[in-house]
Amino acid sequence: MKISCIIIDDEPHALSLLEEHILKTPSLHLKGKFFDAMEALEFLKKEHADLIFTDINMPLLTGLELAEVLPGKQKFIFTTAYAEHALTSFSYHVIDYLLKPITFKRFIQAINKAEAMIAPEATVPDGREEHQAIIFVKSGKQVVRIDLNEILFVKGEREYVSLHFKNERVLIYKRMKEMEVILPAHFKRIHTSYIVNINHIYKIELNHVSVGGENLPISDNYRADFLKFLNEKTI
Fold this sequence. Notes:
By secondary structure, the protein is of the alpha/beta class. It has 2 domains: 119 residues, Rossmann fold; 99 residues, CATH 2.40.50.1020. It has 7 helices and 15 strands. Strand 3, helix 3 and strand 4 form a beta-alpha-beta unit. The longest helix is centred in the middle third of the chain and has 15 residues.
């Protein structure tokens, strides 16, 4: 699967450099490049882009303002020469934040994150196996390789989440809302504190889901959506 993308940057040199990086990357398909966000906004009214590379400091409409007016699920990689914008940018559905000048190595690191977040959302034709998304996460002082399909369930732990596997648990500095974006479609939220991998559910009984030997609660806020999803899978 190719990830469709556009570039927005009012600096010709920065735009050209990003274009070069994209054209070197087989998983990306460049649909357009724009020198201002208003022009890009008009394009996006008619066309879809999985990913938007946008500078933050631009006239008329900044990259952050563009993120505010586009649908909430739109994915971004912000680019800028000013590191102080990083914290603000992560309030949006941002995959990464690239500081100019952007090296190809750093660019590829961002694309690896994008592939993990965007590729699992694609429709899988004719019942073929869903893409096994591999990501790397920071856990304490370690960087851990994670196969998303091996996660049994995710549990919210205040400022952290714990990823539960058959024989281990990995604690990472993420929020549940961020995990909902990262995880593939076969993960469903059933509670403020729990997201389950449908492929590992053993049984559903009353208000609980049995996963990996644990009984997880289904809350009122998520029950209707969860049951609707299950009805589509039930024979």
